[in-house]
Amino acid sequence: MNNYYKEIIKKLENEIKEVSLELDGSIALYEVIIELILSILSEIKEYILKNGFESIDGEIHFFKYQKPVIVAKLIYYNAIYKIETKKPYGEKQVKKYLNKEQKKLKKFFDNNIDFYKYYRSGNSFLDENFFVRGKHDIRLWLDTFYFEADHRFCTSHDYKVAKIIANDLIQVYLEDQLNSNQEKAFDNSSLNWTGSKTALTELIYALNSHGVFNNGNADIRLIAKTFESTLNIDLGDFYHTFMELKSRKINQTKFLDSLRDALIKKMDEQDER
């Protein structure tokens, strides 16, 4: 069985790589991969029903470690397919949508915390109940779908293991999407700095000196980087720019003074209305 499994999993991974090169980045990719996995599972099922297992240990090993790896791929790609086809438009809507998907993963974890502990801890004392066909125990966290499944090719908990593996992959995918969405929000920001780089550098150093970020513990480089990303500007060597500000013989805080004057003027104009 082990040799057969190695061959079949290698075949699946090669087919996924091949189709990924052809359909990279498209929804159709997930549709094709799902069909590939279903086909492989059908092959494995036929093999198992024909050849069986040499021992109980062999059966446990297959349903605990081997079959779940393949089914996890099916769960993962099916989940991503649904996420991508239902994803809304708009940065805020996408963020809300992805966070909602993360909550689904958390709910599964909370509902199956006991089995998570058993599986993640590498325990085996209940393996004959969990991973041998026909030995289910209704008191041990059974999912309803198990009662409708083909018990010749499943145990009470092999799908749950696959779900755990898949959810880890889905979590990584969602985090990547959230980070990408945040970076895209910065990239697509309509707020651009149209003043001089020297003026912005003066402002950044003033805010840093006043300790308004992270209780005064923020690194000047992080502050500068944040302003650059948010305002779509490259400050270049802002250390050098600051040294030039220091070397001014007259009015070292020219921009800050102009800000103060502009604000006072604005207030005076509103008082006159």
UniProtKB/TrEMBL annotation:
InterPro entries: Tet_reg_excision_RteC
Residues forming coiled coils: 2-29
Keywords on record: Coiled coil
Domain of life: Bacteria
Name under which the protein is recorded: RteC domain-containing protein
Annotated organism of origin: Sphingobacterium hotanense
